[in-house]
Amino acid sequence: MLAFVAAAVAAPATAGATSWLPHAADATWTYQWTNSVHATTPTKEKVTVKEQKGAAFVLEWTTVGLENPPEAIGSVGLMAFQETSSGLVNTDWQSSPPPPSFPILCAAVARCGNSLASTLYLLIWGNRAPVLSQPLLTGTTWASRGGAEGDVTSVSRYVGREPVTVPAFPQPVVAAKVRTEITQAGALGDPFGSGVRTVWWVYGVGPVKIVFEHAGGANAPTTTSVLQSTNQQPAMPPADANYFPLERGKKARYRWTNTKHLKQASVQEFHVDESVNNSARVSVKHVSGPIRVAGSYGFTLRTDGLTNIWGATQAASKATFPALGPRALPTAQRRRFFTPYDLMVFGMNPVLPAYAAAGETWSAKAPGRDFSVYGVVGSAKVLGIRTVRTPAGTFRALAVQSTLRQAGFPFGSGTRTTYFATGRGLVKLVFRHGDGSTSHVDLVG
Question: Which of the residues 144, 198, 284, 406 has the least number of beta carbons within 10 Å of its own beta carbon?
Answer without folding.
Answer: 198
